[in-house]
Amino acid sequence: MTSLLVVGMPNSGKSTFIAALRHLLVADEVAIDLCSIELSESEGHLNRLENRWLDCEEMERTKPATEGWVELKVQDKRTYAHLTLRIPDLRGEAFEQPACIGQCDADLFDALADADGILLFTNADREDDALLIDDLLDLLGPDILDANEPESPPEEDSETINTLSNGSEVAPAGEDAENAFKPEEMPEEVKLVEFLQVANRRPLSSRRRKIAIIISAWDVVGTNVKGDGITAELWFATRRPMLSQFIEANSDLWDTRVYGVSAQGGRLPEDKSALEKVRVPSKRIRIVGHGAAEHDLSAPLRWMLPLAD
Fold it and tell me: Considering the domain boundaries, does residue 270 fall inside one?
């Protein structure tokens, strides 16, 4: 059994990818590297995802009652090997925990320890996380760095500063409390880097694994990025620089490929009527990168399999 871990923050395209992949495996409408050979125990969940995808409906947020492990029993068309892929369809909030609260769900931690490969999702239809020091200077002005005029310590205000019985201060009330740091609002890249660091942190042993970076909503790149013919690798390096540099700096731990994927084929609900007119649903799918066939979402999965040629 091969375990692949699907990682991504909320609304990064994980469930849409699983739904489209499931349809490709069972419909046999276009040429792909893998095919389904047997029903799985999670057929009910997979059917619901696939039906929403076929109806061009936006995917519902994964809820605690519906999240779980999805099993796909497939055959590699080149090697004829039979494989069972275990892929989690989990809420994106689960992957925020290491960065936000310093903990990781026990089942997810075990899955990370056992994972043979990781599919890491980031949504192209999402603003960049980057905020450089130069950007702050533009906002705050050059006087912010004037070291010749040290600020006076702020006066304590009994109305806004509360103190516990042990002498430690608690968060201020009122407007300051509303502006207090909220871990869940950290940039996506920070959360993903911290999650990946857990994979090689004690008590786990460091080992090199394959990681497929999936840039979802790839159909929007043509309108959001200047320049024609941008590759998935270039987009990733320029639009997710922190994550890209972290993986590159740890190439002894990560064997990486980057793919651009449009699992739905367009934006919903804006493009629903156009998508419904596509007679072969599998042809709504687009994937670019590393010689993957135009509609073959199984390409990154097959690359991560131990028996891949």
Answer: yes
State which residues form the domain around 289: 2-127+185-304
Q: Is the pTM of this model over 0.90?
A: no
10 Å CB burial of residue 100 (0-12, 13-18, 19+) is middle
Tell me, what CATH number does 220's domain have? 3.40.50.300
pLDDT at 158: 46
Query: Could you tell me the sign of the dihedral formed by the alpha carbons of 10, 217, 276, 85, in that order?
Result: negative
Looking at residue 287, what DSSP letter applies? E
Cα separation, 160 vs 104, whole angstroms: 34
- Measured CA to CA, the distance from residue 43 to residue 297 in angstroms comes to 19
155 belongs to a structural domain: no
- Whole-angstrom Cα distance, residue 174 to residue 48? 45
Residues in the chain: 309
User: What does DSSP say about strands 82-89 and 34-38: parallel, antiparallel, or unpaired?
Assistant: unpaired
Residue 46 inside a domain? The answer is yes
CA distances from 74 to 16, 66, 117 (A): 19, 23, 17
82: which 2 tokens? 């039979």
Partners of 70 in the beta sheet? 87
**79-118, pLDDT tens digit by residue?**
888 877 777 666 667 777 777 777 777 777 888 888 888 9
Residue 120 forms part of a structural domain: yes
- For 134-153, b/e burial (b = at least 16 CB within 10 A) is eeeeeeeeeeeeeeeeeeee
CB 10 within 8 A of CB 121: no
Q: Considering its fold, how many domains does the chain have in total?
A: 1
End-to-end CA distance of the chain: 18
Enter the tokens of residue 209. 């694994």
From the list 260, 259, 257, the residue with the least C-alpha distance to 209 is 257
Residues 191, 11: Cα–Cα separation, whole Å: 14
* Pairwise CA distance, residues 178 & 181, whole Å: 9
